[in-house]
């Protein structure tokens, strides 16, 4: 019976002192879950407020180029060739 007593011995220390670790871990997991739900709701609301299409940032430049081409009567490629790379 001596070998079984050695194998059955508790080598993990006092298990009663760590009795709060389980409930604290559960509380942290639940709080992280609640925070995640609020973050998802906030992101969803922000995404719904976004416009379906964003304005083209180059639209003004393209319109100005088109007007200058109409006035000069030349092709629009001359603008690209004259600007340094």
Automatic annotation (TrEMBL):
Q: Where is this region: Disordered?
A: 54-85
Segments spanning the bilayer are: 20-40
- Basic and acidic residues bias locations: 72-85
Superkingdom, according to UniProt? Answer: Bacteria
For this UniProt record, the keywords arranged alphabetically read as follows: Membrane, Transmembrane, Transmembrane helix
Q: What is this protein called?
A: Secreted protein
> Can you name the source organism?
Dactylosporangium darangshiense
């Amino acid at each position: 019976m001596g070998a079984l007593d050695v194998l059955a011995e508790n080598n993990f220390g006092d298990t009663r002192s760590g009795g709060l670790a389980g409930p604290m871990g559960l509380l942290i997991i639940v709080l992280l879950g609640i925070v995640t739900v609020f973050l998802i709701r906030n992101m969803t609301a922000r995404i719904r407020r976004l416009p379906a299409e964003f304005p083209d940032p180059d639209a003004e430049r393209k319109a100005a180029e088109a007007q200058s081409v109409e006035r000069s009567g030349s092709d629009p490629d001359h603008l690209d060739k004259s600007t340094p790379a």
